Structures are given as C-alpha cells and as structure tokens.
Amino acid sequence: MAFVALYDACVLYPAPLRDLLMQLARTDTFRARWTERIHDEWIRSLQAKRPDLRPEQLAHTRRAMNAAVLDCLVTGYEDLEAGLTLPDPNDRHVLAAAICGRADVIVTFNLKDFPVDVLRPKGIEAQHPDTFVRHLVDLHPGAVLAAVRAQRESLKNPPRTARQMLDTFLEQGLVLTVAALEPMIDGL
Description:
Layout: E1 4-7, H1 15-25, E2 31-33, H2 36-49, H3 55-68, H4 78-81, H5 92-100, E3 105-107, H6 116-119, E4 125-127, H7 129-139, H8 141-154, H9 162-171, H10 175-181
Parallel strand pairs: 1-2, 1-3, 3-4
C-alpha cells in the first residue's frame, strides 16, 4: 500500500506551497488526498486575504487539482467527526478524512491542533510541510528535484531562476527543504 498524505487547508495557499505540494503529488512517491470541505476552507481563507481573486479562478484551481491527482478526494468521512476530540473542533473533519482516507500523515502548519496522543493510536502523524518535503527529499531526491524543476519551469510570468525558487520556498517556511535542495541547485 502506498504512503498517504492528507493535505490540510492551510498548506494549500499561498500558491507557491500549493504548487510544490501538487507537483510532488504527481511524482507517484506517495498518494495525496484532501476533501471538498478542505477545498472550501482554503478557498475561503484565500479570498479573505485576496478579494481581488475571482471565484471562477479559484474554482478552476480546485478542478485542476482534483484532475491532476488520481483518487485525491476523500468522501464518506462525515460520520466519524462527532466521535473525535481535538483542541479545535473545526479540525475534526480533517482528522476524520485522514482516518477514512487511510492517511499516514496530515500535512499542516497547525501541529498543535493535531496532538500526538490523539493521532498516534490512529496510526497518523501530523507533519509541518517543511518536514514532509524534507523527508521526501531523503527518500526520493530525484523525484523531488524533478518536481521542483517542473514547478520552476511552469512559471513564465515572470520566470524564476533556481535561486529564486529556493528563496520562494524559504518565504514559505521550508528551511529544511531548502537546505536539502541547495546542493542540487544546478539540477533545479
């Protein structure tokens, strides 16, 4: 069975981090999953910060994400929510989706909202996106390098150098990831 990562809404914006996670999801080194409710959450949060973005643009991004990753949507998790206890009850749907989607890890910035003592018995771990990507670099350096290169090459307006790409990742809080990618910068 493939390793499964559930993406929390907070890692699906801003765009550079979402794009990196989507490129990585397409490497077939793990299975990425999320829910329509997680989509709703990241879109609402992004619209609050960027009211200039049109709903059609975000709907297009949502459809493109769902089309890019096979079997990414977790469904049927709603009945599990009521029986779960987390520091923030609004995160129960994420844990329920992780359980239902057989996730090994929840990729999130909100580690405190997913306590180890709650997740461990369910065989799930919460990981900061930097830790998650850094582990992927260790396990599949060539695949991660190709994913980062594909992300960089897709940026046309303006184009990005490898150094600029790594600087963007630093802005996203991916310090460990950048340290691991630095020696491979010529391949980015």
